[in-house]
Amino acid sequence: MDKLVSFWLFVCKNKYLITLVLFAVLIGFLDENSIVRRMGYAREESRLREEIDKFRTEYEENTRRLNELAVDSGTIERIAREKYLMKKPNEDIYVFEEDIEK
């Protein structure tokens, strides 16, 4: 009984502190919009923004190459030779190991 009375006195003395701590725990960890979840969402958002930037630069590069192909027929020949190892009838092709690894 003595422990119960001392506990009750502790609660009565520190009721505002206990309420504040419970509120902080509720908002920080248990709530649907907790700080922990918000930090995770912010991390995922930054990762997705980086991915968007990567795809945007890739899109711009591919668009530039497509415009090159539409304008210059020599570019088509160059790409066919480099990428698909095509050749003219009277030519020989030499492929180096460094080129294969790329």
Structural descriptors:
102 residues, 5 helices
Q: N-to-C terminal Cα separation, in Å? A: 80 Å
- Structural class designation: mainly alpha
Kindly provide the radius of gyration, computed on alpha-carbon positions and rounded to a whole number of angstroms. Answer: 33 Å
Low-confidence stretches: none
Overall mean pLDDT stands at 85
Query: How many distinct beta strands?
Result: 0
The profile of the biggest β sheet is:
none
Helix content: over 70%
Q: Determine the number of helices (DSSP H or I, runs of at least 4 residues).
A: 5
SSE order: HHHHH
Q: Please state roughly what percent of the residues sit in beta strands, choosing from under 5%, 5-15%, 15-25%, 25-35%, 35-45% or over 45%.
A: under 5%
The best one-word shape is rod-shaped
Please describe what this structure looks like.
This protein is mostly helical and about 100 residues long. The chain contains five helices and no strands. It has helices at about 1-15, 15-30, 35-70, 75-85, 95-100. The longest helix has about 35 residues, at about 35-70. It is rod-shaped. The termini are far apart. The relative contact order is 0.04. The mean pLDDT is about 85.
How would you summarize the topology of this molecule?
Layout: H1 2-13, H2 15-30, H3 35-71, H4 73-84, H5 97-101
Helix pairs in contact: 3-4
Question: What is the compact description of this entry?
Answer:
It is built from five helices and no strands.
